[in-house]
Amino acid sequence: MRSSLYIGATGMKSLSEGLHVTTNNLANCSTIGFKSQMALYSDLIYKEQANPGEWNNNQANSCVAVGQHGMGVSVEEIATNFTQGGFESSNSLTDLAINGKGYFMVQDASGDNFYTRAGDFNVDTEGVVRNPNGLALMGVNLFQQTDALTGQGNAADDTEAQATGDLTNATLEAIEIDRFKHVDAKQTSAVTITDTNLIPNSNVLTDIENPYFSMLQAYDATSSDPLTTNQFSNAQGITIYDESGTAHEVTLYYDGADQNGTNQYVEFLMADTVENAENVGDGLLMSGVLQFDAAGQLTGLAAYTPEQAGSTALSDWTSASLSEDGLPTFKLGEHDVTINFGISSETGTLTTQNSAEAVGTVARNLAFLSGAQTENFAVTGYSSNPFVSASTQDGYAEGVLSSYEISNDGIISGNFSNGENIDLWQIPLARFTSDDGLHRHGDNLFGYTSEAGAMELGVPGSENYGTVCPYYIENSNVDVANEMVHMIVTQRGFQSNSKVVTTSDELLKTAINLKR
């Protein structure tokens, strides 16, 4: 009977703890990112029945099994349910939900790191992204502020780690979104021509003595139209930037040239717009020839640049220098700019070094790229449907941040007043060998313990990491109906165990009264 009292007491104690868990779940049914818990019970040690006898007739090796009876129940573990909660939309960009595995890393003022699924972040007066308790969201600084003169950056560069998806060893900082963030002007260093088809036999302008430099000979910067529409077959405008961020409106003119056997040629001329030009060649940057085979595929490129600014004399135009990537370059101010038509020199050399004057009417005299390699986007020379659709360049004027956005892979990118979209931050996600080893700290925070195993940081959306969803928050994963069932079962169990205690007490009283 005394055992019954004890066992009933263990039942009441354990079930009261279970009710505590259920109550806490119900209290947090609307808590952002909350993970529900469950009380797991286990039976206590068993007591063996004393003095087991033997079978009647004393059969060999046939003993009565030892009897056992239990000593009650205890709460073995409070387990956490880490399943994902439902999403709720919001009107705040910095409300972030994780669709899949992972935790946001946040840091307090003491530098201690915590982990959370609650992504209800806000930007404080200093631009730092914080949760409601003031902990800063941690991320990788991707903003590479580049000196236009030296090409040297002055911010942390973890782009290689970002590319591999493993950010465990990356340098983390509190994410700061400065609404007055300034980006310096960047000198254009590369121009790429894409989505372009030229017709080699569309030869509008012809110079009998210099068929590959007809437009160069006709160019006149002192005229309102340096080249008239009857002096080229196609043209495209490109805006490039010098070291101060000043925009230069550059025009690429194209026209067919002589055909030599199966090879076909298109000459091109690149010129900057110059107001009040004094010399006929002011603004000229590059002249050259594109070579196509009979199928219209780009097979060669010869480029020439002026040694004497403002001159259209062919003797002043020599083979263009090549970059480390085997691309021809021209000068914008004091700096080299590459131009990429989709073809480069694998060897970084030319078939010859000469002036434009030495070419004459012989195509093989052109200084073509040696070991030419073409790309998929290379300019084509098909015999119909000419078009000049696109060009890209990597320079821009100075600007200030006008808005920002957050992508599913955790990239915070800024839209600047100069029209540039620049990556500012990478939000990493943390994952652990065992989520059950994390320690709850309240305020929707988990802390790392050794029982959680290895911690890794990665790019959202990469292997085994969830994605970041802006304008959403993750709700609690508490199932209210299920918790109500647990509460009723726990209540009935508690009442039953309390009845056992009172019944055992009555039996003990009866036994004691027998002596009297």
Task: Please describe what this structure looks like.
The chain has three domains: 2-50 and 65-82 and 477-515, no CATH class; 87-184 and 400-474, no CATH class; 190-393, Sandwich (Tick-borne Encephalitis virus Glycoprotein, domain 1), CATH 2.60.98.20. The protein has four helices and 34 strands. The chain has helices at residues 2-27, 159-164, 214-218, 480-515, and strands spanning 37-43, 46-48, 68-70, 73-80, 87-89, 96-99, 104-107, 113-116, 122-123, 129-130, 136-141, 173-174, 182-183, 190-197, 234-241, 247-256, 264-272, 284-292, 298-306, 317-319, 329-332, 335-340, 343-345, 372-374, 387-393, 399-406, 411-416, 421-426, 429-432, 439-442, 445-447, 455-458, 467-470, 472-474. Strands 7, 8, 11, 12, 13, 26, 27 and 28 form an eight-stranded antiparallel beta sheet that branches. It has a six-stranded antiparallel beta sheet with strand order 15-16-17-18-19-20. The longest helix is centred in the C-terminal third of the chain and has 36 residues, at 480-515.
Task: Write a concise keyword list for the protein shown above.
516 residues; alpha+beta; Tick-borne Encephalitis virus Glycoprotein, domain 1; 3 domains; six-stranded antiparallel beta sheet
**What gross morphology would you assign?**
rod-shaped
Which regions contain 5 or more consecutive residues with pLDDT less than 50? Answer: 146-157
Spatial separation of the terminal alpha carbons: 19 Å
Q: What characterizes the major β-sheet?
A: 8 strands, antiparallel
Query: Helical content, roughly?
Result: 10-25%
Strand content: 25-35%
CATH homologous superfamily (4th level) name of the largest domain: Flagellar hook protein FlgE
Mean pLDDT: 89
Alpha plus pi helix count: 4
Q: What fold name stands as the CATH topology of the largest domain?
A: Tick-borne Encephalitis virus Glycoprotein, domain 1
